[in-house]
Design goal:
single chain, alpha+beta, TATA-Binding Protein, Nucleotidyltransferase, domain 5, 3 domains, six-stranded antiparallel beta sheet, five-stranded mixed beta sheet, 11 helices, Reverse transcriptase Ty1/copia-type domain-containing protein, RVT_2
């Protein structure tokens, strides 16, 4: 703080009430076999300040992981060079335009840092993307910078462009620079000749060691006909549903949570492979929805395949109640269509290429309504969702394709499929490798796990075949 001239020691005026603060000490694991780092931060008690009186705007954008996967796709297709960097004590570099005694409230420092960094990059020829405020593009060199608070990745065609940016930023900021991308915001990145492989084994190990009881081992995240919530595409539906009951969980929710952790332990080495097909310029959006559910609100999900691999996914509940399965599918398709437009525009801005949108649906009635402009008493109330997809289709910006239910990849985002179907969806479309039952049994044989009755709702429990 002294190096960056963060504070100035002055007598406290009589009309000023200073803000208290606390020290926060954190141990940050090293990357790979690197040493553990110890960090100390002095935090102001911003809860003693009032919004509109002591502070105003606190908004500061952060980059999305979908945009990261898009950039990794472009980098792999175009053979771009990638490097990562991390700003040391990022918030201390920002200027505060108000007089604050001790420290600003929670969130204000983030906005100051964002404005300061945006201005610094602007002097170096970078402008924010029109579709993602934390992605910066240089119209001169073609470089792209992806920023998540104080962590970033730079992509470029030439190494000397990266070296010039590195020298320029290091002259102004204290930065830890890595010429090869191995780790970014908690994600292990394995860069291969054909693409990138993303994994989070450290996070899964931490969750399992802290919360798992070491008993439930399964090869599907949920028993059939039960719902839960997850963080990877193969468990997104489960994680989303459990999160709805995180405030008042019941006994069943704890049981299913243990089941989910057992599944995570069985797939701890899972990697999401971003290996694009260079000849595939299609943007495939699989959209699906269930009808009914808790409080009659349907679950919906969409999965995007970008040049042949999974680029983004979503699993949520519809905001409004659907009057029929067709109505639910129509609303879900509208949400997927909006997302596909954003991805198409983002890709066009970054790579200069326009990808064709292929919307895939398995509901015949929904297909007829969109493609033939059909509207009747049962569908007239859903015009907003209808016209979003209809406009894309009839303007030639997207194609609509009907698929069999067995080929609907978004099924894994809207319902519990059971071990066999889940394995089919996880291994091929999602590139999720899950250990076999025998491997699971051998891995946990030393833990003396209790066996379950085959009649229990858990379908796979440490059984050798």
């Amino acid at each position: 703080m002294s190096k960056h001239s963060v504070f100035e020691i002055l007598p406290i005026p009589n009309n000023v009430k200073p803000i208290g603060g606390d020290w926060v000490f954190v141990r940050k694991p090293g990357i790979g076999t690197g040493p553990t780092r110890f960090k100390a931060r002095y935090i102001a008690r911003g809860n003693s300040q009032l919004s509109g009186l002591n502070f105003h705007e606190t908004f500061a954008p952060t980059a999305t992981f979908t945009s990261l996967r898009i950039l990794l796709t472009v980098a792999s297709r175009s053979n771009l060079i990638a490097a990562t960097f991390d700003f040391t004590a990022a918030y201390l570099n920002a200027y505060i335009n108000k007089e604050v005694w001790i420290r600003p409230p929670d969130g204000l420092a983030g906005r100051c840092w964002w404005n300061h960094l945006k201005a610094s990059l602007a002097t170096r020829g970078f402008r924010p993307s029109n579709y993602n405020s934390s992605v910066y593009i240089s119209n001169v060199t073609g470089m792209v910078v992806w920023l998540h608070v104080d962590n970033g990745i730079v992509f470029a065609q030439r190494q000397r462009d990266i070296d010039n940016l590195k020298c320029s930023l290091c002259a102004k900021f204290d930065i830890k620079w890595h010429d090869r991308m191995n780790y970014i915001v908690g994600i292990n990145v394995n860069q291969a000749d054909d693409g990138f492989h993303l994994s989070q084994p450290l996070l899964i190990q931490f969750i399992i060691s802290e919360y798992w009881d070491g008993q439930h081992v399964a090869n599907a995240p949920f028993p059939p006909k039960h719902n839960l919530v997850g963080t990877r595409p193969d468990i997104a539906f489960g994680v989303n549903l459990l999160a709805r009951h995180s405030k008042y969980p019941g006994k069943d929710h704890w049981f299913f949570l243990q089941h989910l952790l057992g599944y995570l332990d069985g797939s701890i080495t899972q990697k999401l492979s971003l290996i694009p097909n260079r000849d595939d310029l299609n943007l495939k959006i699989y959209s699906d929805a269930s009808w009914g559910g808790e409080f009659s609100r349907s679950a919906h999900g969409h999965l995007t395949q970008l040049s042949g691999f999974t680029g983004s996914w979503c699993s949520k509940r519809l905001v409004t109640v659907a009057s029929s399965s067709c109505h639910a599918e129509l609303m879900a398709l509208g949400i997927a269509a909006r997302h596909s437009q954003w991805m198409q525009n983002s890709l066009q801005e970054i790579s200069g290429k326009t990808m064709v949108i292929n919307l895939k649906c398995n509901n015949a009635s929904c297909m007829r309504i969109v493609s033939n402009c059909i509207s009747n008493k049962r569908t007239c109330h859903s015009d907003r969702e209808f016209f979003i997809t209809n406009q894309l289709f009839h303007n030639g910006l997207a194609t609509l394709v009907w698929v069999f239910s067995e080929e609907m990849l978004a099924n894994v985002l809207t319902k519990a499929l059971g071990p066999q179907l889940h394995s089919t969806f996880a291994k091929q479309p999602l590139n999720v490798e899950i250990r076999s039952r025998t491997d699971l049994t051998e891995s946990f044989s030393e833990k003396k796990l209790s066996l379950f009755n085959p009649c229990d709702k858990i379908t796979v429990i440490l059984s050798r075949e």
